[in-house]
Amino acid sequence: MTPNIPDSPHKRLVIVGAGFAGLTLARQLAKRDDLQIVLLNKDNYHQFQPLFYQVAMAGLEPSSISFPLRKAFQSRKNVHIRVTDVKRVIPSRQVVVTDLGEIHYDYLAIATGADTNYFGMKEIEARALPMKSVSEALALRNRILQNFEDALTINSDEERTALLNVVVVGGGPTGVELAGTLAEMKKFILPKDYPELNFENMQVYLLEGMDQLLAAMSDESSEKSRRYLEDLGVKVMTGQVVTEFDGTCIKTKQGLKIRTHNLVWAAGVKASPLEGINPEVLGRGGRIKVDRYNRVEGYDTIFALGDVAMMVEEKYPNGHPQLAQPAMQQAKLLSKNIKRVLDGKKPEPFTYKDLGSMATVGRNRAVVDLPFLKFQGFLAWLTWMFVHLISIVGVKNRLLIFINWVWNYMTYDQSLRLIIKAKPPRIPKEPVPEEKVEAPAVVH
Amino acid sequence: MTPNIPDSPHKRLVIVGAGFAGLTLARQLAKRDDLQIVLLNKDNYHQFQPLFYQVAMAGLEPSSISFPLRKAFQSRKNVHIRVTDVKRVIPSRQVVVTDLGEIHYDYLAIATGADTNYFGMKEIEARALPMKSVSEALALRNRILQNFEDALTINSDEERTALLNVVVVGGGPTGVELAGTLAEMKKFILPKDYPELNFENMQVYLLEGMDQLLAAMSDESSEKSRRYLEDLGVKVMTGQVVTEFDGTCIKTKQGLKIRTHNLVWAAGVKASPLEGINPEVLGRGGRIKVDRYNRVEGYDTIFALGDVAMMVEEKYPNGHPQLAQPAMQQAKLLSKNIKRVLDGKKPEPFTYKDLGSMATVGRNRAVVDLPFLKFQGFLAWLTWMFVHLISIVGVKNRLLIFINWVWNYMTYDQSLRLIIKAKPPRIPKEPVPEEKVEAPAVVH
């Protein structure tokens, strides 16, 4: 195998990662015919992270929040997409090393994002359910649905409770949204689907190490989201740091024990920097330190942007929040700056414009913090839906998500409760059983 | 584990399989509170087989053609669904043996359907791509899409052609529909998605052992479908029986060789009867011989229906065609007969009413044989869509499929070109790496 990127008379920009940062950068630059763009990504699609929890909760299909990369760059002859893992960068030779071989770059943009942070707890990493990809969200969906099926087939009440209980760790937006949706499923859907089970035995827990939920938001939003969750029946426990999980029981540092088979881990992220970057420019959480032009400290031709980058501004001494907005804003300015440099002009420094943040808890319940306005409830919920709908890539995805939401709202139902088991891919050259093959006279 | 089916004062009907036959039977009887129904199925959903090929060709999502079984029987306390494999029946003790343990029946309905028939050719079974479940359809989609990615990364023209070529075996509706859709993808989508590849090197072949396509339909339909396919660029080859496939090349009995990594096997089906049924009542293709009341020969309390059953009528000396229509008609009458018997009345014998058959080749191109009318082309294509749309289970599925079809038609695009790799499920009790776990001071 070889990357097979054709030679070009133009400069080559290699972008690693097609999340919000990488995809935005590539799209903004795709029309520059005097730039060759190589976009490298693990999957052949972009994923819309803010809605992973709805995939996990059977409300949306993975495809509705995924967008094929090739569709975003159809007929662009200067854009070369390769689906591959990037192993490391060798700055001295200006190459990245991939599964397909080495690829030379003139400019490199690292947009590798962040992954689940287990804070070094291997026991939890081996058993908890993370939520940082559509694949992981699907796995969580299948696991929870399978648990209900399994709960029908055991006689021990204690074991059944452990199967049904779900402990969500992490009081950020993902944890809040997941716990709220689970509580709604328990209330509206599960008793109808499983009339044989008693769902009073099922508890949804939301555990958070700090003393409030949605710590990055306003106090009003933080308190309101807690009340919404408790109204829905979620057991919210703050100041609880989970440190042990043996597969059937979690324990916290504070001494709490909860029987459960299902630990959903949304407690934090750590950056996924590329190997080969000088470790001294890695900051807190593994983020790559960049200047206000997204240039990696100490490198002239390497940029980092999005969750993996740490750009310090006066208002953000620890870097920007690891969200879609900073990633997209950085990508937009970086694309402009690259165009400016190509045109012989001077680049401009970045300033983050905080557009606000929001989280949804359930039907008619959300919290919104805008720069000059905070509100909660039904209007916040409509705002949340509107903002997410217009942010998603692809008109068809928008339409399908809208229909799904209206449908689910009207019917109180998430209808995608399918445990679709993936068939392992067939390898053409796998060994054939020993039996002698005898051709039939006629196949039909 | 135990099946945990509660005792009931009423007779228990155990239905094995939730395809067209099993699901219809269960739905028709679900409202009889004086009957306990146990529905056993491998998956927790019903699959709409006629549209598998659209899932394989990235036109529809698996969820659009799947329907959660529990949703079909919400709040029905007399219906017990268990997701399990049924291994065999022990008629002398009136039990079926499942993964969950034994389940007693008063009446047993076997609706286990049919599976891909490789006619004993193990080499082909190990390497070909079948199309008898949504999982298999998804695997086919992922494989074909991955091939295009791989084709970008090799230098050998010969090998690239082998990756791109697709050989579809079997000239029935599935083979015809698949080959037609592939040819359209090659024409409308792939050159845009992969401007780096030359799709003149890709060939779609449709091979059939008999001397015509759609042999079960009229000669007009058969000839027209061939012309449609050839217009789209499909190489249709009849009278060719594939007997060998080493992973890179197929060979036919007639001496034809085609280089390809992709052999799609839609050449035939064989019934999946339950072990434990007297082998003497198994007819051609493994089908269970039943009388006109769907009673299995020699058993008073065991019924078989749908693809797995062979009911002989004067017009159908080899049993009914293995399609949705006979399955559903049999299920409807059997449900009526069971009600009649419960009410102390006499059952009625079955007569199959052929409502016609149809197949689609591509945009605006389909063939329809109704009992007194045959037509092809645009009107046939609309008819095909209408009939499939109203046949699918679930109003939301219908709506989503309709939107997808309209969208794909207008944009000449199948937009679900996502290779979503399934994450292996996490087992709660899997061993934990040896490293000592050190709890962090604060999780956040």
Topology:
The structure is a homodimer of 444-residue chains.
Chain A: E1 11-16, H1 20-29, E2 35-41, E3 45-47, H2 52-56, E4 66-68, H3 69-72, E5 79-83, E6 86-90, E7 95-98, E8 101-104, E9 107-110, E10 114-116, H4 122-127, H5 134-151, H6 157-164, E11 166-169, H7 173-193, E12 204-208, H8 219-231, E13 235-238, E14 242-245, E15 249-252, E16 257-259, E17 262-265, E18 269-271, E19 288-290, E20 302-304, E21 309-311, H9 324-342, E22 357-362, E23 365-370, E24 373-376, H10 378-391, H11 395-411
Parallel strand pairs in A: 1-2, 1-9, 2-5, 9-20, 11-12, 11-17, 12-13, 19-21
Antiparallel strand pairs in A: 3-4, 6-7, 7-8, 10-18, 14-15, 15-16, 22-23, 23-24
Helix pairs in contact in A: 1-9, 5-6
Structure, described:
Two copies of one chain form a homodimer. The longest helix of chain A has 21 residues, at 173-193. With 444 residues, chain A is α/β, with parallel strands linked by helices. Helix content of chain A is 30%, strand content 23%. Chains A and B meet through strand 5, helix 4, helix 5, strand 14 and helix 11 of A and strand 5, helix 4, helix 5, strand 14 and helix 11 of B. Chains A, B: Residues 12-331 form the FAD/NAD(P)-binding domain. Chains A, B: Residues 355-410 form the External alternative NADH-ubiquinone oxidoreductase-like C-terminal domain.
